[in-house]
Amino acid sequence: MRGIRRRAEDGSSSSTRQGRMPAAQRPAQALNRTSRNGAVVFTAVLFVVAAAAGCAIAAAAVGEVNLPVLLVALACGLLAATSIHLTMDWEKAVVMRFGAFNRTAGPGLVFTIPIVEFYSVRIDQRVIATYFGAEETLTSDLVPLNVDAVIFWMVFSPQKAATEVEDYASAVAWMAQATLRKAIGRATLGEVATRRDQLDTELKEALEEKLDGWGINVMDVEVRDIVVPKELQQAMAAEAIATRERNARMIMAEAEADISDMLRDASGNYADDPEALRLRTMHLAYESVKQSGGTLVIPSAFSEGFTGDVAEAAAKAAAK
């Protein structure tokens, strides 16, 4: 994972910092990162071997080791080191000839013509993760937010990455931050907080369009954290509680309205059929006895339904 941290020219604003890697992740990055030490050692050994061979040949020709012989040895070492290069499996070498792009080469050994060609840059073609953020960015409803995100990208065209932009890794981080700020400025606080997936998709599409001309493909963009100012957190929590209470009361009111409609319909059915009402009364009594474990408490108004056969049926049910 790569991080980029820069300040603006005035050196005063912390909001322009790029690629701040969380401290907890830095040790793992250092342990797992690959190394080019083998390529560096190869170049050094090649220089020493070529210089020693040149020195031996020149010394044998003149019969002694003097300053011209040492200069010849130095020239041989430099020519060998600048003509034979070693690139790693994930790298592409951009070769320039007389200052113009000639070809990309690698991985493995790359040979160039001394003086005529030179090895300008090595392009890493692995997937790279760059951490970026937007500090105190105003939403459309004027709420300052701190948003942290990660972009996963890779170079698919080494030629464009070397010739179209000066420092493509830094450009990706700066472009990602600018795009994130614009996306936040177009949305409200609620939209940013609840539509994180939509924000990820918007950032990915915008960055793909802008970075394609630099030979860079955006694999994914993930918003890691959205921090709301502390002074607004209590107000947002109170608003959320009030909203939930209002919804609960509305649901209870709707339930009461439904119950009253059903009771009104039921009363219409029982109005013309006293026997059905008595059977319903007996059923309610049975349920009461069943739940109370044999004890039946009947209000005076409720007892009016227990007449005649209904009272006898209720008594039998209570005896059971």
Key attributes of the depicted protein:
three-stranded antiparallel beta sheet; 4 domains; 20% strand; disordered N terminus; alpha+beta; 320 residues; Tetrahydropterin Synthase, Chain A
Query: Which regions have little confidence, pLDDT < 50, spanning 5+ residues?
Result: 1-20, 22-30
The percent of residues in helical segments reads 40-55%
Query: Structural class of the helix and strand makeup?
Result: alpha+beta
CATH class descriptor of the largest domain: Alpha Beta
CATH architecture of the largest domain: 2-Layer Sandwich
Order of helices and strands: HHHEEEEEEEHHHHEHHH
Number of helices: 10
- How many structural domains are formed by the residues? 4
Q: Mean of the pLDDT scores? A: 78
The Rg value, from CA coordinates, equals 40 Å
Q: How many distinct beta strands? A: 8
- Describe the biggest sheet? 3 strands, antiparallel
Assigned CATH superfamily of the largest domain: Band 7 domain
What global shape is seen?
Answer: rod-shaped
Head-to-tail CA distance between termini: 77 Å
**What's the CATH topology label of the largest domain?**
Tetrahydropterin Synthase, Chain A
Description:
By secondary structure, this protein is α+β, with helices and mostly antiparallel strands. The chain has 4 domains: 83 residues, no CATH class; 101 residues, 2-Layer Sandwich (Tetrahydropterin Synthase, Chain A); 42 residues; 48 residues, no CATH class. It is built from 10 helices and 8 strands. A 3-stranded antiparallel β-sheet has the order 3-2-5. A 3-stranded antiparallel β-sheet has the order 6-7-8. Strands 1-4 form a two-stranded antiparallel sheet. A hairpin with a 5-residue loop joins strand 6 and strand 7. The N terminus is likely disordered.
